[in-house]
Amino acid sequence: MFKKFLNNLLGNDAGQQQPQEQVTNPFQQQAARHNNDADDDDDDNVPVQGTQYQFDPHTQHGTHYTKEAFDAAANRHYEEMLADQDEVLSENEKRNLKREAVTQLYLKWNGHNYDQLVQFEMANSLELTGYATQGFNQVKEEGNPLYEPIHGISLYDYAGIAHAMAQGVPEATILKAIGIEKAVWEEVNILWPERMKEDASFGIMTKYGEYFAIAGEHPKLLNLKPAAAATSGGNANLEKLKTDRYFYEELCGARTAAYEYGLDGAQWILENFGINLSDFQAVAMDWMTAQNQQFNSNEIHHYMDYQLQKQKEYAEKFAKEQGGNIADDIAF
Known about the structure:
Layout: H1 2-10, H2 26-33, H3 67-83, H4 91-109, H5 114-123, H6 125-128, H7 155-167, H8 171-178, H9 182-198, H10 203-213, H11 234-243, H12 245-260, H13 265-273, H14 277-293, H15 297-321
Helix pairs in contact: 1-14, 2-5, 3-4, 7-8, 7-10, 10-14, 12-13, 12-15
């Protein structure tokens, strides 16, 4: 269950034949469609051409203006756009128009930088779209009943248990360390996913991903050992996976190719590189977070191309090992 759940979380389903992480960000696609029609009001907040812009790391607003000034100007721009509409808009159309007004003004005030716009939209996605985005600490657990522990098991505990199980630590060992009975765990393992389904903002899923990335530090599970040890090169390869983006993209491509040829991609990586599923997914979370926080469309496309290249190379390797290509078995 956890392998499928984690793969779904990262878009790495075994049946999926496209690169898992570097799918074009929806914010990037939306940004490319925007024009720059914001009115010339509030020009005092528009920096002179050639200015080196600085941005607040949390809100991604430019530091040359205040958020209050931006919100007020965006509201004015929205009201002007709304007044120009020929038909009465639905509430959903009004929300879309409001977002368009925010986007146009942001581009105008921040040098028409579309990559920066993507970062702004991701950092403020909960406010702009109602959906949380990985890497921007948007989720507030305090006071939200959806984040209350279930039978004493917090979301961090739940992520820690998932991480340990994916590493191959026996279930009985994990439950003993956490301090719950199997029957309690079985109910917890139903109710946390149910809460995730209830959360239309995807906040629980996002927070779960953040917790999973640091689950190896869980104080109650920190020293648990998997039933089967990793291969001798595992630790060195894991460290390389954390620091070498090209190595990470290569293994993503290899895993996808393995699934295409009927292999268990996660098991193939474990056997050949000594990296288990939970460690791989935790590193994937880190790379995803870093990519969101330092969004660069050219860099994303560069790594996407590299992953596709490696996927093709490994596909050829698996085809030779199996005595031919998938297409060879298809009769036309």
